[in-house]
Fold Tyrosine-protein phosphatase.
Amino acid sequence: MIDLHCHILPGLDDGSKTVVESLSMAEEASKQGITKIVATPHHNNGQYENDGHDIIEAVHQLNVQLKEENIPVEILAGQEPRVNGNMIADLDNGKVLTLNQTSGYVLVEFPTSQVPKYTTQLLFDMQITGYTPIIVHPERNQELRENPDKLYRLVKNGALTQITAGSLIGNAGKKIQRFAEQMIETNLTHFIASDAHNVRKRGFYMRDALRYLKKNYGNPAAYQFTENSELLLLGQMVNREPPERIKRKKKWFSRR
């Protein structure tokens, strides 16, 4: 199994704080059947700055440690950049990394409560330039939950999305879980990843999420999400079905 979104590199952001904690995370990932983890530290989010070159070096150092400890997990370089107007230039100069450095796929994080107005044009321009944007944990974005048509239009225009394993199994609350389910049901999401920060409250939950997928949506759905992660690392086109709109329940108001 491949995990495309994880904060396992020590001391770079709000994920792992030490090498010992990173090794503990890798051990837990291995127990869940994860063999490859794309390390995706936060970048340009107002709190953390992690340029691509620094991430590549940190990945190398952690892989050395994993081999010394005989932990059968490989770390690959990636990044979780906050959406901003300089993304294309930063991708071109190496400050922002594509996943696995050669895939062409790029994680894109939105602020928690809203989607910047320039997002539609930026994601379009990224695709024209040869990059494929992947919107991370959209189920946790307040504006997208309140206006799912905005997410539909972004996906219809070519963006991909990644939901978080913990969200799907209910760890982030019922509203977020239901929106993640609706995204699956309407072909608005394409990857499941852990977004793990530690082995305590923000762990992997990938095995639980796959079980949930199989139980509620069948083995083909679980297989497609798993295969998409593999295709991504190979730089190939991933499976995607035509997106559909999420139908919102009408609110009825009584007259007095």
About this structure: Residues 251-256 have pLDDT under 50 and may be disordered. Residues 139 and 176 are 6 Å apart (CA to CA). The chain has one domain: 2-234. The beta strands are 2-6, 36-39, 42-43, 74-77, 80-81, 105-108, 132-136, 160-164, 191-193.
